[in-house]
Amino acid sequence: MAAAPSIKETTKLYENARAGLNAAKPKFDAVKSQVSQLKISLVQLSMQDSRVEADQSFHLLKRGILELGAELSIKTGDAAAFERYLAQLEPYYFGNLKENLDESKVMYPLIGLNLLRMLTDNLIADFHSALERIDLDQLQNNPFIVHPVKLEQALMEGSYKKVWQARSEVPTPEYLFFMDLLMGTIRNEVASCVEKSYSSLPFDDAKSVLFFSSMDELLGFSQEHKWTVSPSEKRITFPVVAEDAHMFHGDDIMKQTLAYARELERIV
Q1: How far apart are CA 86 and CA 176, in angstroms?
Q2: What are the φ and ψ backbone dihedral angles of 201, each rounded to 5 degrees?
Q3: Which distant-in-sequence residues (6+ apart) come within 8 Å of 69 by Cβ?
Q4: I need a surface site. Which of 132, 154, 165, 249 has the fewest CB within 10 A?
Q5: Are 93 and 107 in contact (CB under 8 A)?
Q6: Helix, strand, or coil here: 200?
Q7: What is the Cα–Cα distance from 65 to 59, expressed in whole angstroms?
Q8: SS3 55
Q9: pLDDT tens string 230-247
Q10: How far apart are the C-alpha atoms of 93 and 82, rounded to whole Å?
Q11: What are 38-49's pLDDT values in tens digits?
Q12: pTM, entire model
């Protein structure tokens, strides 16, 4: 069995991987391979000498590697891996290991991203439990935390317009990953309600109520949902839905949402 690398050697590999991820054109496969090797090195270091667990430099390195993996997961669109990395970072952000280390510069951006993930997965109870562990000052003033807090309020109000506007107010581009997932979920919910509330809609109204920026996006979405598109009439026709006594009727909500969308179009 090969000898375990030293903390110095592992730190060097970590710095190379970090530089690779921060490059203008990162090679994600190469960085992913480096992160995998770094995680193996952490295990080897622990097995070689259990006393390393009491070494501050070891925990700084381990936290950095986990954060690197979390950031890589966002950039490669791997939400499941991101969730696993944040679970491993819990002791460093909220547990017993936090007090002995300087605060990480990426801690609150990652915590904010994790809050967004919870909203995207509709884990509202987990979202509020997570908020209880964050200092009040950060809840009120840290832009990485304020953004998902306001977003959750908009979702609870049912104000999809505010959710859509929040996409343009993200504190860092990485937030767009979960924002786009969330908007995808919202569009599907709105689409389901539209089909039950209207027999057809003009292109412009459908584009507004579904929060699309371009007609191509709307037409692609229509094709996915098997809606009938009439270019000559500039209208989308929805399939007839059989009446269900237990089905939720969203006519009033949809009409209000459409009015909001039209208002937003006038403002923009």
Answers
A1: 18
A2: -145, 145
A3: 35, 39, 81, 85
A4: 132
A5: yes
A6: strand
A7: 10
A8: coil
A9: 999 999 999 886 655 444
A10: 15
A11: 999 999 988 887
A12: 0.83
